[in-house]
Design a protein that fits this description.
single chain; elongated
């Protein structure tokens, strides 16, 4: 058994819950939450504004005046891999009043960050927002990955309904695979190296030509811990996105271990996809 306990000692209470989420979550939602609510006056309500394509320090500087003057509601920044979440929280006598307090703050954040906000729904992930954007515009997508080894495709495929738009994922880890599968030129690989703007560009273009997808994303980089040099250090990643036959290539320098670099590269690829789709297509799913 995995029991939950509430212990009382004087005016103090201790709540003990089992660790496994499938036991903890329903126990909290069905029993503990209502018990806590009865113990305190009023309610606490939160709304999360999720931002991609902008770093934590930049986000913080944009809302410094709000952070300095906040009382109720409050705004708390949370840094995620490739994202920043702003949690707006209000305390009031009831949920309706709390929502009314939160609403103007969320509106102000939308005014300040615009299309950098990909959702205000807690359950919407970055990959889900990207897939919804693809499907809303009736676009198909294919991926071409080297250092991320299929992680980008996996993030997209995690989203239910993506089969309507996802065409294929190519893992072209070796130079030979880049040439044979995607048509990257041997001269390009020899002159610039596999980790380069030029190769990323040819990978995205090759994926578009081979799969006939409307959107293609290519990732090539050095995840480490080995393989880096002074000219091309560990964490160097190039990401290319091809939309409407227009290719955008961006250079990134990520830090951390191999897993962190790959995770950051995938988040950056999703963000670049989203930005390019919004640039070339008018149908927007944004900030519910």
């Amino acid at each position: 058994t995995a029991p939950g306990l509430i212990l009382q000692e004087g005016d103090k209470h201790i709540i003990l819950l089992p660790g496994p989420p499938n036991e903890l979550i329903p126990m909290f939602e069905n029993q503990i939450a209502s018990w806590i609510q009865k113990k305190q006056p009023g309610v606490i309500y939160s709304k999360t504004v999720k931002i991609c394509g902008m770093g934590e320090s930049k986000v913080a500087s944009e809302i410094q005046d709000i952070l300095d003057g906040q009382q109720n509601p409050t705004v708390a920044p949370y840094a995620k891999t490739g994202e920043v979440h702003l949690r707006v929280t209000a305390k009031a006598v009831d949920e309706k009043t709390a929502k009314q307090l939160v609403k103007p703050v969320v509106k102000e954040l939308k005014n300040r960050f615009g299309m950098y906000i990909y959702t205000t729904e807690e359950a919407i992930t970055l990959e889900k927002a990207v897939v919804e954007l693809l499907l809303a515009n009736k676009l198909t997508v294919s991926t071409a990955e080297s250092c991320t080894g299929g992680l980008l495709a996996a993030r997209l495929i995690n989203v239910p309904g993506v089969s309507e738009g996802f065409k294929s994922g190519c893992i072209t880890y070796s130079n030979k695979a880049k040439r044979k599968v995607l048509g990257v030129k041997k001269t390009t690989l020899h002159k610039y190296g596999a980790v380069s703007e030029e190769v990323a560009r040819e990978m995205a273009l090759g994926a578009a030509q081979v799969t006939k997808a409307d959107v293609t994303v290519a990732v090539t980089g050095i995840a480490g811990p080995d393989g880096g040099s002074e000219e091309k250090p560990v964490g160097l990643v190039y990401i290319a996105c091809c939309v409407c036959k227009k290719i955008t290539v961006k250079k990134y320098r990520f830090s951390g271990n191999r897993a962190k670099v790959r995770e950051a590269a995938v988040s950056a690829a999703l963000t670049l996809m989203r930005q390019n789709i919004l640039e070339y297509y008018s149908e927007v799913t944004f900030g519910k």
